[in-house]
Every structure is written in structure tokens, then in C-alpha cells.
Design a protein that fits this description.
By secondary structure, the chain is α/β, with parallel strands linked by helices. Helices cover 36% and strands 12% of the residues. It has an eight-stranded parallel β-sheet. It is globular.
Length: 309
Amino acid sequence: MTAYFHLPGLFEFHELYKVFLPVFCGHREYFYDGYEIGSIYGAPSDCLWGGGRVENGEADADEVFAWMREYGISARLTFSNSLLGEEHLTDKRCNDLCAMLSGEDRPGSFFDDGAGKSVANGIIVHSDLLLAYLRKNYPSLYMISSTTKVLTEFEEFRRELDREEFRYVVPDFRLNKALEKLSGLTEEEKGKVEFLCNECCSFGCTDRKDCYEDVSRKNLGLTGPSHICRAPGAGEGYRFSRAMKNPGFISKEDIQQIYLPMGFTNFKIEGRGLGSALVLEFLLYYMVKPEYQIHVREAIYLDNQLDLF
């Protein structure tokens, strides 16, 4: 089965992908067979509708979307703010981005990968208010239910899968290893599941929803106490080595030996708020055969247009 990876940093790591995508397309022998890029997601840092962790994202939208069209890869805007009101729906910046993403200014241009395959773009959402607005005003865009909903109860997650508004649903990472229950999903439901593979957050954290709401509040310019994470190891920031020890971590071996044979094909890699050097390590780990990782590193590092630091 084909594994589709949904990668972080549509705007944030555009310079990295400008180097990585030619390598991916030009040297498929470097990469595991049957591995594809399902989408690249992200948002500029100045979006009211944004709700994910991001420190930058200033790449020009015209350039970013044109690049994605050229490679026939789905682009997703991360508009997962959970605190939106009616007054926020008319925000010009966010509406302009959605219009560009839907191809209203270039009819049909966002839906052809150059080989006759239809490619749609999407929006990652939390707010049902925004969901209804987007579906009415930008019907060509597909919707993804955000992991910021923190769906930790399996039946709650299954109800989300049954919502026809969503093409994909990202469960909380603590459901990743609920394999007995996951195996009982229908084939249609399995096709909508998008696992968050490399979360570093403490498995026992009870403040995850508060953390996401803090980000949403700051994006809207609202006042309120800043959330301080007290989970073990939080002060160290993200560590891939620690994420690998997380009970919810999905390894490359898990994908190949467990999830693909079970019928799951969509895997999300987090990392928008991290550096491009670490995101490259995620790409190498999940997608590149070990014997070719040095070849990909060389292609990236020797390109003097890319600053990893």
C-alpha cells in the first residue's frame, strides 16, 4: 500500500522544500517504495485563523502555492484556531489565502499534478463555525479535523470520522497505539485517519487543550495568562530522541509492519515550530532508505541557498 506523508512548514520551511522536492522527484531510488508526499501544511504567522505552534512563516503565498502546483502536491492551510467568533470570519488576510488556495484566481490550476491526476488543497480546522464558513465560501477545498481538538476518547474520535464534512481526521497521539480498536474501523474510516507520528508532548499531559487554546488566544490578540507547560521535560523543548521513547510514537518500522498492513495510509509529521535542520532529520528518518540518507543530506547541505541555522 502507498504511505502518504503530510509534512510541516508550507511557509515556514519553503526554502528547505525548494531543495528537497527536486531530490524527492528526481531520485526516487533514495526513498522507500510506495512513499508519497500527501500534503505540506502550514500558515503565515500573521493569520487570525491560525492555531498551530509557529514562530515564522513569511514566504510569499504566490510563490509557495505556485511551487506546490508545479510539483502536484496538496497544500494545506493550518487554520485551527479554536476561539474564533463571527467577527473573525471576514478577516481579509485569511480569506485572501483561501481564495488563492482554492484557485479562484486561476480556475482549475490547483487541481492537476501534470500527469492527469486531480490534486485538491485543504484546510486544517478546529472551529465548527469556521468549518461551516469555509465549506460555504470555498467548496473546492477539503477539510481536515485538527489534532488540537484533543480527541483522546476512542468513541469520540470515531464519531468525528463519521462526519462527512471531513476528508481526514487527526486523532490525539495517545490513540495511536489503540490497535485493537483501530483494527475494528471500516475501510472507509481507516482511509480518513491521519496519525500524528512524532509528538514529543508527555503522554500523560492533561493540559494539551489549554496549550492549544493559549496559542489561539495569542493569535487573536486576546489577553489572558500564558500557559506554562509543567509536563516532564517541557523545559528542554522538542527532542526527537525523547519523542521516539513516547508510548504514542509511530516509528518507520511501525508504519511498514503494523499500520500499512492494517489499512492505514496517512501519517502526519509535526515540526512547524522547529528548525529546518530537525525537520530534515524527520524527512530522512521516515522517508529515506538508510544507505541513501547521506546523499540527501549532501544535496541539502551543499546547496548554499539553504540556511539551516
